[in-house]
TrEMBL record:
SUPFAM superfamilies: HCP-like (SSF81901). PPR repeats lie at residues 98-128, 129-163, 199-229, 230-264. Keywords: Repeat. Gene3D superfamilies: Tetratricopeptide repeat domain. It comes from the Eukaryota. Belongs to the PPR family. PCMP-H subfamily. It comes from Gossypium schwendimanii. Residues 445-537 form the DYW domain. This is DYW domain-containing protein. GO terms for biological process: RNA modification. Coiled coil: none annotated.
Length: 537
């Protein structure tokens, strides 16, 4: 009876489960091997390592340390609590670990980010079940190893194993991050053909995938087909609309969500305010910000204040944005000052930028982007001494820009391009194609804008560097290997520089191609010489 009570409370109310264990001891009832798995699971629920160690002590005291079910629960508990050393010690002492034991230790290594060790154990397993496959694929996805998650899913299919909804959520999320819409569509087909349930989690993953891959129309279609939606489903769609710059639509869906009786969460407002910022809807954005606490009882967090700064700054209200930051009720962090600095770049305001820089750089001295932003603002206002100061500061602190890369999916394969990387098997043809593109867009008026290039090299080197930016190589490959009217879709890890933005607009006009570029901040839809961001990003 006590075991039943400990089991019943171990999930919903773990503390209560402990209370019944103590009452059982006080009643002079000796625990058995069925008492401890649920007691230890209660520790895992609480992620309470100290309580877990005490439970482990009780297991040893009562002589159940070699019981396989008890050992499995210990491996699971230590893995869940992040003590992989203790989990591995229990696992290595097991005489005959079963599939549950292996899966738990693999999950533990995934949790601490050691996917290599997790995969090594996965490959050594004498037998695997679907939960094990799901654990390894999810581990890759959670640790940003999206290509490896996709590869392992292919191995699973090749072995004739049918994936479940949990596996497909990890796979579809990986395609979303890679921007691989062809593979994402195939995964969606797999869901339909295998009669998997379009539950809230899987449906939301599909909405997010289509939005991140540049097809907001398909995201809306999946959303409309979902039999049930929660606030995160609505938020995923609002986030997608925000990324694509559809501010009015995002607000419309938000109103529809509220009218359906669902209460928005703080993250819903983050994306909603972001949509207003990208759409230039200053008054509406401020109205929504004020409504958070007034109408929904949500206390604004730093990211919401950051969205308002971005909203005001992008609209050119720099003095108002600076005043807003200085009067915030909570201390502004580096991203908030960074949003204001970014606005200074757009509107070329060196005076406010300098004030912001003196606060921002000491906050995050290792962040290369802020040095580069400030340097470029100085360069545009011909303050070359300040440019040199920034260069020296970066050199002294050992700060380096993160390498940029661009992904493009062609015929179901994702290609990764980096500036200066010659590893692609068709790199010579790609560079020749880019030279051809360059000649044609120059005839259309392209001159090359070196203001965002590295500021410690001369103009000729800057121009050569610009012409080998990763997205330009990806665009050249897309034009080589795809046919109109199919759009060329590219995912970039950094913000699109001004030169690449100008060049891509001209390419869309000269070659009559639609290009959809997802950068760190938003989507850019290039058509007939213009961009959906209206040069405002």
């Amino acid at each position: 009876m006590y075991n039943a009570l400990i089991k019943g409370f171990s999930g919903e109310n773990p503390i209560k489960g402990f209370e019944f264990y103590v009452r059982m001891l006080r009643a002079n009832i000796v625990p058995d091997n069925l008492s401890f798995p649920f007691l230890v699971r209660a520790c895992a629920q609480l992620e309470g390592i100290d309580m877990g160690i005490q439970a482990h002590g009780q297991i040893v005291k009562h002589g159940f340390e070699n019981d396989v079910y008890v050992q499995n629960s210990l491996v699971y508990m230590y893995s869940t609590c992040g003590d992989i050393k203790a989990a591995n010690e229990v696992f290595s002492r097991m005489l005959s670990p079963n599939v549950v034991s292996w899966t738990s230790i693999i999950a533990g290594f995934n949790k601490i980010g050691d996917v290599e060790m997790a995969r090594e154990l996965f490959d050594k397993m004498p037998e695997r079940n679907l939960v094990t496959w799901s654990t390894m694929i999810n581990g890759y996805a959670k640790n940003n190893c999206f290509e490896k998650a996709v590869e392992l899913f292919q191995v699973l299919k090749d072995k004739g194993i049918k994936a479940n909804e949990t596996v497909m959520v990890s796979v579809i999320s990986s395609y979303a991050h890679l921007g691989a819409i062809e593979l994402g569509e195939k995964a969606h087909d797999y869901v339909v053909k295998n009669n998997l349930s379009l539950n809230v989690i899987l449906g939301t993953a599909l909405v997010d995938m289509y939005a991140r891959c540049g097809s907001i129309e398909k995201a809306i279609k999946v959303f409309d087909q979902m039999p049930e939606r929660d606030v995160l489903s609505w938020t995923a769609l609002i986030a997608g609309l925000a990324m694509h710059g559809y501010a009015e639509k995002a607000i419309w869906f938000f109103s529809k969500m509220v009218n359906s009786g669902l209460k928005p969460r703080d993250i819903t407002f983050t994306y909603l305010l972001s949509a207003c910022s990208h759409g230039g809807l200053v008054e509406k954005g401020l109205e929504l910000f004020e409504s958070m606490k007034r109408d929904y009882g949500i206390e604004p967090r730093l990211e919401h204040y950051g969205c308002v700064v971005d909203l005001l700054g992008r609209a050119g209200k720099l003095a108002e944005a600076e005043k807003f930051v200085l009067e915030m009720p909570i201390k502004p962090n580096a991203p908030i000052w960074g949003a204001l600095l970014g606005a200074c770049r757009i509107h070329r305001n060196a005076e406010i930028a300098e004030r912001v820089g003196t606060i921002l750089i000491p906050l995050l001295p290792e962040h290369s982007g802020y040095y580069v932003l400030l340097s470029n603002i100085y360069a545009r206002t011909n303050r070359w001494e300040n440019v040199e100061t920034m260069r020296q500061m970066m050199k002294e602190k050992g700060v380096k820009k993160p390498p940029g890369y661009s992904l493009i999916e062609v015929d179901g394969k994702v290609h990764n391009f980096k500036m200066g990387d010659k590893s692609h098997p068709e790199i010579e043809m790609i560079e020749q194609k880019w030279d051809e593109i360059l000649r044609k867009i120059r005839l259309a008026g392209y001159t090359g804008n070196t203001s965002d290039a590295l500021f410690d090299i001369d103009e000729e080197e800057k121009e050569n560097a610009l012409h080998r930016h990763s997205e330009k190589l990806a665009i050249a490959y897309g034009i080589m290997r795809t046919e109109a009217p199919a759009p060329i879709r590219i995912v970039k890890n950094l913000r699109v520089c001004e030169d690449c933005h100008t060049a891509t607009k001209l390419i869309s006009k000269v070659f009559g191609r639609e290009l959809i570029v997802r950068d760190r901040n938003r989507f850019h839809h290039f058509r007939e010489g213009s961009c959906s961001c209206m040069d405002y990003w």
